[in-house]
Amino acid sequence: MSIARCPACICGGLPNLQDRDDSTHPMPIFRILRLNRQHMARLLLLVILTTASSVVLLVVPWMAGHLLGTMVTGQEGALKGAVGVLAACLVAIAMLSFLTADRMVRMSAALLAELRERIFDHVQRLPMAFHDSRGKGDMLAVMTIEIAKLSEFVAVTLVAVPARLLTAIGAMIVMFTIDARLALLIPTIVPLFYLATKIVGRRLQGLAVQIQQADARAIALSDEALQIVPATKAFGQEAAQYDRYRQTVRKLEGLMVRQGRIYAALDPLISLIAAFAALAVLWFAGHDVSDGRMTASELFSFMFYAALLTRPVGSLAHLYGQIQTARGALARLSAVLAEPTEDVGAAQASRRPRAHGAIEFRNVHFAYAGRDPVLTGVDLRVGAAERIAILGANGAGKTAMINLLMRYYDPQVGAIFVDGEDSRTMGLSALRDRIGLVPQSALLFNATIRENIAFGAVGASQQMIDDAARLAQALDFVASLPYGMDTVIGDCGLRLSGGQRQRIALARALIKDPAIIIFDEATSMFDDEGEEAFIDACNDALHGRTVILVTHRPATLALANRIVTLEDGRIRELRADERRLQKVSA
Ligand SMILES: Nc1ncnc2c1ncn2[C@@H]1O[C@H](COP(=O)(O)OP(=O)(O)OP(=O)(O)O)[C@@H](O)[C@H]1O
């Protein structure tokens, strides 16, 4: 029996980042974000707002130049008008900035929430084989950091691009109208900008991937460390755990510093190129003004537009790096969303005929991906209401049989029948509705006892919860807790004893009144007395149900009326003397 995984635990392994294939062709961003009409309307409004800001912004250099020109020439009347227009522009820019920022936050938050819901829903529905193959930290990084990056990219960065382009093109046009000869100097610096962003962008791309990997590892390590706090304390591993985490976050720090340095260098570089261009303009324009070919107002305006131009060009240079980061996030999200989910089928338990619980494994062969075969021709018939125990050495494949019965995996050869129907054709929800699983690790979550029991059946009523708790003989200990059924039990039920957790797990399994109950080493954490009490509790609860017991514990075997053993990948019925021996020790 393998250790059942706690839903919130990292035991499934750290991210295997080397194995990850990020080369998957990313889905278009609009498909990933499912941008519907409402989103498009909001995006359009944002584009209009940022564009309006740009238009007003384009008036400012003109008016500022005009203002300075009138100051130089001493035209008092024109001064007042220019100040008034400038003030109006500044107020308009402030208001538009507020509106834009407010809308951006709403848009970004909405996209983030929707994407989070979607990926959460999708990941939960992915088959066990997928979860086995992916590191949990890696998945957590995709579900948190990556989607945050993506929604911010769309709602903040991408939305501002039209406005930036408009500002750049608008500034260029006005500069051409002021002095085409001088304006022609500007395009000569474009190749320099391009070169700078290309070189910088190439460095940023590799760094973005490394930062994502280090981020994922840091998330995985902190999650794992929190899960194994008791083990860390018991083995005095606090310092070693700290070192492991420290190495990862320091590596992340180094990468972020490198990325920050590149971005830090980019802005001054762009400014320097722009400043040299401005100097060249001044050089030529100085002659034009002294020769009377250009007014002082035009010169000032020209210079202001040149300065205005550096802002959108600078942010467009940043855009290259941001696109690379978003592309990486998009590829990883696409890869997860492209994975086919399990088809659970409609939950119609109430309309299904009552199941009998007969099970048959017919020539079942199974190997986990990339591993040696575990089951090599399992044949086993379990009659309705029969109680069977499956014995076998560690690693023999007992849990693998349960995993196949639950259809967490499918066999490579052979089939499993439940009530005479091939489990692969009956629909996952129809199959799983018939089975109550009590695993070794109770898989409880941090909520009340009531919520944990109700988890076993969609729409469970109060009466059903109480009945299930009574059947599992959990009512006594629940009554002794400070808030009874409403007591919150901590992560994985850590505020309960092992035996109490198992009773909650049994109640949860019984609440849907399943025809089949599986105990996968469910009594391994009991002492003899606790095990006997638990078995007493089970005797009533198991009445009329098919029971599969995976256990090494003799006392639990007493529940079984038939014992088989799994050896070399096949089922062997115990001989009468072996059976007697097992029962005697029980
Ligand atoms: N998710 C998995 N991916 C790959 N191999 C696995 C996985 N789970 C178990 N195995 C391997 O499959 C084999 C059978 O494991 P299984 O858990 O079914 O054994 P078991 O009979 O339940 O053992 P035990 O009595 O120790 O719990 C083992 O060799 C194990 O290493």
Keywords:
single chain; 586 residues; alpha/beta; ABC transporter transmembrane region fold; Rossmann fold; 2 domains; 6-stranded mixed sheet; 4-stranded antiparallel sheet; 19 helices; 10 strands; 62% helix; elongated; disordered N terminus; binds adenosine-5'-triphosphate
Reported by name, the CATH topology of the largest domain is ABC transporter transmembrane region fold
CATH architecture of the largest domain: Up-down Bundle
Cofactors and ligands present?
A: adenosine-5'-triphosphate
The SSE string, one letter per element, is HHHHHHHHHHEEEHEEHEHHHHEHEHEEH
The total strand number stands at: 10
Relevant CATH superfamily of the largest domain: ABC transporter type 1, transmembrane domain
How many structural domains does the protein architecture include?
2
N-end to C-end Cα span: 20 Å
Number of DSSP helical runs: 19
Question: What quaternary form is this?
Answer: single chain
What's the level 1 CATH class of the largest domain?
A: Mainly Alpha
Strand residues, percent: 5-15%
Biggest sheet descriptor:
6 strands, mixed
- C-alpha Rg, in Å? 34 Å
* Contiguous runs where pLDDT drops below 50 for at least 5 residues: 1-24
Q: State the helical fraction.
A: 55-70%
> What structural class do you assign from the helix and strand content?
alpha/beta
Average pLDDT works out at: 80
- Biggest sheet, spatial arrangement of strands: 6-7-8-3-9-10
Question: Any overview of this molecule?
Answer:
- This protein is an alpha/beta fold.
- It has two domains: 29-338, ABC transporter transmembrane region fold; 350-585, P-loop containing nucleotide triphosphate hydrolases (Rossmann fold, 3-Layer(aba) Sandwich), CATH 3.40.50.
- It contains 19 helices and ten strands.
- The strands form two sheets. A six-stranded mixed beta sheet has the order 6-7-8-3-9-10. It has a four-stranded antiparallel beta sheet with strand order 2-1-4-5, covered by helices on one side.
- It is elongated, with a radius of gyration of 34 Å.
- The model is unreliable at 1-24 (pLDDT under 50).
- Residues 1-2, 132, 368, 371, 374, 392, 394-400 line the site of adenosine-5'-triphosphate.
- Residues 44-325 form the ABC transmembrane type-1 domain.
- Keywords: ATP-binding, Cell membrane, Membrane, Nucleotide-binding, Transmembrane, Transmembrane helix, Transport.
- Residues 359-586 form the ABC transporter domain.
- It is a multi-pass membrane protein.
- This is ABC transporter ATP-binding protein.
